[in-house]
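Worked problem 6 (solution included).
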Amino acid sequence: MLQWAAIFFIIAIVAAIFGFGGIVSAAAGIAKVLFYIFLVLFLISLITGRLRR
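Solution. The predicted structure is:
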């Protein structure tokens, strides 16, 4: 999932360079949402991994 967030972030940067404003905001928003989902899932897996030991 972090890979998808990075891909959308790169798409946002490339689109910003070429001046596509709508695509930039959409790709950056998707990247931000995917990053937060990854972060939450990572923290959950970290906590559940500690509880099993």
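Discussion: The chain has a mean pLDDT of 84.
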